[in-house]
Design brief:
By secondary structure, the chain is α+β, with helices and mostly antiparallel strands. The chain has helices at 17-32, 46-50, 59-79, 93-104, 108-120, 129-138, 143-151, 154-168, 189-198; strands spanning 6-12, 35-41, 175-178, 181-184. Strands 2-1-3-4 form a four-stranded mixed beta sheet.
Length: 207
């Protein structure tokens, strides 16, 4: 009998550079530990966190944003990744609906990996259905079925995901929920691993 897998919730947003940084280490957890990842979309409240619209930000908010992107570049440079700061505040809800759709059809990673890479190279507009549909087609997904989902159940599904985040006490992305304990940030994966090891969920070398 196969080992039962512990579910790790991973709250994400495609416009979050720290979520992008967290994805590859998160994927590896399924190889090193008896876990499965459950991806839950949660839109990053950029205006609320960083001082409103771009023209409304005071110097202190800009200093905070610049510092955070300095950290992003440090992490990215260590791994040979390209992460360029977005030039506007994007509405990522349509892309997150795509994440829900891709996940339900077993193609989350091919969709998400392409989306993150292109968005942070400034090659993709998260608000453009055509751009998202092109990524979906490459990931092996039915774009017309996604359009029907986006026009139908997806807004309610996004609200349900946000409600689950609120119940879990999640306030930002990326956040890992491991057996009710939260770990916020791409650089918390090492602590996630310690938690999983304490739970004796490590895979044996033979496995």
């Amino acid at each position: 009998m196969a080992d039962a897998l512990e579910t790790i919730k991973l709250y994400y947003d495609f416009k979050s550079p720290f979520t992008y940084l967290a994805m590859e280490p998160a994927y590896r957890l399924e190889q090193t530990h008896r876990v499965r990842l459950r991806f839950i979309p949660l839109e990053l409240a950029v205006r609320e966190v960083y001082g409103g619209e771009l023209e409304q930000r005071v110097q202190r908010d800009w200093d905070k944003v610049r510092y955070l992107y300095m950290d992003v570049r440090r992490f990215a440079n260590e791994r040979g990744m390209i992460i360029r700061g977005p030039q506007k505040i994007y509405d990522s809800r349509l892309a997150l609906m795509g994440g829900l759709y891709a996940d339900r059809n077993g193609r989350f990673r091919p969709y998400a990996d392409r989306l993150f890479e292109r968005f942070f190279k400034r090659e993709l507009d998260l608000e453009d259905f055509g751009a998202l549909a092109a990524v979906m087609a490459e990931a092996g997904l039915d774009t017309e079925a996604f359009r029907r989902y986006a026009d139908g159940d997806s807004p309610g599904d996004l609200r349900a995901a946000a409600a689950e985040a609120e119940r879990d006490g999640v306030f930002g992305v990326p956040t890992f929920n491991v057996a009710g304990e939260l770990f916020w940030g791409n650089d918390r994966v090492a602590w996630v691993i310690k938690k999983l090891d304490q739970m004796k969920l490590g895979r044996t070398r033979a496995a």
